[in-house]
Amino acid sequence: MIEDVLDILASLGDKRNIEGMKRFGITSSSKILGVPKPKLRELAKKIGKNHELALKLWDSNIHEARILASMVAEPEKVDEDLMERWVKDFDNWDLCDQCVINLFWRTKFAYKKAVEWSQREEEFVKRAGFALMAKLAISDKKANNEKFEKFFPYILEGAKDERNYVKKAVSWALRQIGKRNLYLNKKAIELAEEIKKLETKSAKYIATETLRELRSEKVQRRLSSKEIGA
């Protein structure tokens, strides 16, 4: 089956897309085929969940096959060892974010790994930590406020990192936490003000982006109406 899937992926690839991906900073030591995301999602839907296939897809060392692996893997079969093995292979933001969004946040290790990875040195492992915080803030609807407040010291520390893909993920995490409810909105704004005082380029970027979005009329109106409707 693995060979059939790899053949399908090769047939869906488009060299023009590879150039477009490069422009968005998506390069890799793995082979890139240039398969559009909607095509990958379509294929994943046809395949269904298949953990054994996911492991083989990952080992193929093909960018799109690895993204497909994150779509067909079974979250309940994912252990910490697999997460650590996969995260070490991240060498661009696309693979990092897709694995977090499609799979990692659904595992029982998500909160633990968010904290652990946010303290790691490797750029895309660190990004994965903050991307996990962002995705959990978006999708873990039942989580209490305390779970997200526990991320704040790591966000403050992460704001000191000047690397592009880290600072953008730190900003993403803080903004998503601040959009959960009015209480976390207030707390995230307070943290952004604290980050602003760090006076580094990355801190300025994170604070500006966060304060602009979290204080916006659109976000405030949505959170207020959410509170009224609760």
Explain what you see.
It comes from Palaeococcus pacificus DY20341. This is DNA alkylation repair protein. The chain is 70% helix and 0% strand. The chain is globular and about 50 Å long. The model has no long low-confidence stretch (mean pLDDT 97). It folds into 2 domains: 91 residues, no CATH class; 122 residues, Alpha Horseshoe (Serine Threonine Protein Phosphatase 5, Tetratricopeptide repeat). It is an all-alpha fold. The termini are far apart. It is built from 15 helices and no strands.
Architecture (CATH level 2) name of the largest domain = Alpha Horseshoe
Distance between the termini: 48 Å
Q: Find the CATH superfamily of the largest domain.
A: ARM repeat domains
* Share of residues in helices: over 70%
Order of helices and strands: HHHHHHHHHHHHHHH
Class from secondary-structure proportions = mainly alpha
- Which fold name fills CATH's third level, the topology of the largest domain? Serine Threonine Protein Phosphatase 5, Tetratricopeptide repeat
Total strands: 0
Biggest sheet features: none
Return residue spans where pLDDT drops below 50 for at least 5 consecutive residues: none
In one word, what is the shape?
A: globular
Q: Report mean pLDDT, rounded to a whole number.
A: 97
Radius of gyration: 19 Å
Strand content: under 5%
Number of domains: 2
CATH top level of the largest domain is Mainly Alpha
How many distinct helices?
15
